[in-house]
User: Fold these one by one.
Assistant:
Number 1:
Amino acid sequence: MPRCRVVAPDVVRLPLSDGDSVEVKKTLNAGEYRKLIYDQFKDTPDGERITLDHSKVGMAKLLAYIVGWTFVGFDGQPLPYRPDEPEDIRRATIDGLDQETYRELIAAVTAHEEREDAALEAQKKTRITEPA
Amino acid sequence: MFEELEAHGGEATISWAWHTAAVFRTWRIHKTKTGPWSLVATATRVDTFKLQQRPLLFNVPRKGGYWCWPVKAVTVQDKQITAALGPMEA
């Protein structure tokens, strides 16, 4: 049977401090991955060499991966966050979090990304060594 | 309690997880007292692959969030979409 190459929209829950958690996409599809790469580079005039914009790297990763969380607002009610909201709204919501939470989110999402990359590499090796 | 309920509006979507499966220009939902919710909508964009996946949600934006219904079955004819919906979720 041929291999299905479509990325299923699976979600992984990552634990955070104080009993909170964040839900992230298990794997980015090609479009999401491509957007993440482009979003991390500086805007440059045509013909100029493109360079990584370190100020965009963390936020681009969070916007690409996060689909929800358990955070609450001042009133104790859930702090809304939907992946299908416009990007500027999601960005503003993340910008409103405290710095410690922002750093914790980046660390959690980066660790998740590294685990998934390693798992994909292992899967590829298994496919290559499987008999036809 | 109502005997029959009908609502209609402008922009709405059907989503598969965080992916947009269809975007609607106009939509109309209908429910009788004992019957299920049904949807008739005119789409501006349809992704037929994503519309075949499950679970699907019909989302109507409202102040502070969305009203959502699970999509039980969906048929597409040109840009006209009809769907059977489950109970409203939020």
Number 2:
Amino acid sequence: MTASVCEVSDLTVAYHSGTEWLQAVRSVSFEVRRGEILAVVGETGSGKSTTATAVIRMLPANGRVTSGRVLFDGRDLLTLSVRDMRRLRGQEIAYVPQQPMSAFNPTMTIGRQVAEPLVIHRGMNERKAAPQAAHRLKEMGIHDVPRVMHSYPHQLSGGMLQRAMIATAMICQPRLLILDEPTSALDVTIQRQILSLIKQVQADYQLAVILISHDLKVVSEVADRILVMYGGRGVEVGSTPDLMNASRHPYTRGLLRSTMRAGLDHKSKLASLAGYPPNPHEVDKEPGCPFRPRCPRAVAECAERFPPGAFEDGHGWACYNPEPAS
Amino acid sequence: MAAPALEVHARAFQRASILDLARHWWPVALIAVWLLIVLVPGLLAPQDPLAVNTLNILAPPSGEHLFGTDHAGRDLWARCVWGVRYSLGISILIVVGAAAIGTVIGGVAGLFRGPVDALLMRTTDVFLAFPYLILAIAIASAVGPGLTTVVVALTAVWWPGYARMVRGQVLALKELPFVEGARAAGTSTLMILFRHLLPHLLPQLSARLSMDVGYAVLAMTGLSFLGLGAQPPTPELGTIIADAHSHLLSAWWYTTLPGLFVLAMVLSSMVVSDWLEARNKSQFS
């Protein structure tokens, strides 16, 4: 197997809220290898975006990594100096924030913003960087590059901006690309296009990609492996086929059962997970499994301690009473 | 969400075209005329503002001397026009300098927060506590009166206002998503300030700047009138009026006409500032 580009181990992140510290991510571990797309899937508040921002050290001011390591090329990103970290951002590790519409500066043209990493990291002047920016935009499937280069963000569509966003991320040829909900703000047809673009870019450059999403079904089309998060914990990880067809954690099963699939007619009822997503103020104190209150297979042990991970051929799950292997 | 306002904002930058100038010709013309006087006063007043003619003192306005002459027989029109160069020109320098200092200090304070912010803003408060007149008197008593004294005293009391304004704006702006985007690209904090946030500050900065030029003209001529600023025979408007006030009853033009010049400068600055503010408002709402 190819070497891992980024290895996160035992990552715990807490936010200061009012008077107390709330743990948004608790002991999450995963790795991304070269030429692989790892999807991190979970509902709102599961800690998936927090995990991503912790990796590139861009947590909000009230957030702290309280334990864990993030190894990138064998170096722990969490102990790097601010300056070294800045050098990696945009150059070795690229991050595409949520909402392409507002992630561009409205007072600057797209061309200048796509070229910005070159100006910062390679010391180029804007005129010199422009042809490269144009080249990248073209590579991302934009046809009228000159117009887009001279456009301001409000003049372009969401899909166009997302392409430009990915062009910006790719301009210095990073080795790790982190995309936070790259398709959520887009409509369904554009979603498909952006996903296949991500897949293509990833294959062309043998990138390691971390793809954050709330939609298991959508990411399963491009991801090589999937990490499922719930209540700040990683509950199941495995290759896409393993997770889609042979998931062992009741939460993953529940998610899959509640998605649309072919063969459903108008009479069949879509299953839904009972209960509500966990309250961050309560799940934080939970010593056991955060999914226990909603779990159909909960046993007595679940309330006491978070289950240790069980592994089988790279497929791992954290559950005392997993679904039977099918 | 802040997005719609920002979209309009972006359009404002695009619209700054020749057409735009044609539609708003009069404030632009106003600025142009004053700048012309500041840059080439000789164009409007060919006479030497320093040429003394003791045979023709305190002559009333006439065809030969448009504004009459002063107590040394110097042409008052030439002195007033050259006075604009000193009063307005130096006021602009003071305000621009103060705005530059204030923008950097306020921007850094707003972006870094924490102890840096506290240190910078408390320093700002200390400067804000000084009345400029007292400061000018103190400096004048140390290094003697003169234009340098005025420039130092006014700049020192003028930048804190900009620092506060910019800090407030930066605090709001830095929460916008594109700042996160820039940071993810590896852009440093100072680069974010100058490259990404400065364009967003320009509308407010420009309106305040043009208004402050008027206030600076008043403060500067005031200091010179009191004898702390430009010294005779320098044709600075405050100095001219100070020279003239003993002839108030015998030569009305000597005080009135330079006074009107000061009034015109201050009024112009207010008018331009109002126009800029109205322009910003129509584009932000």
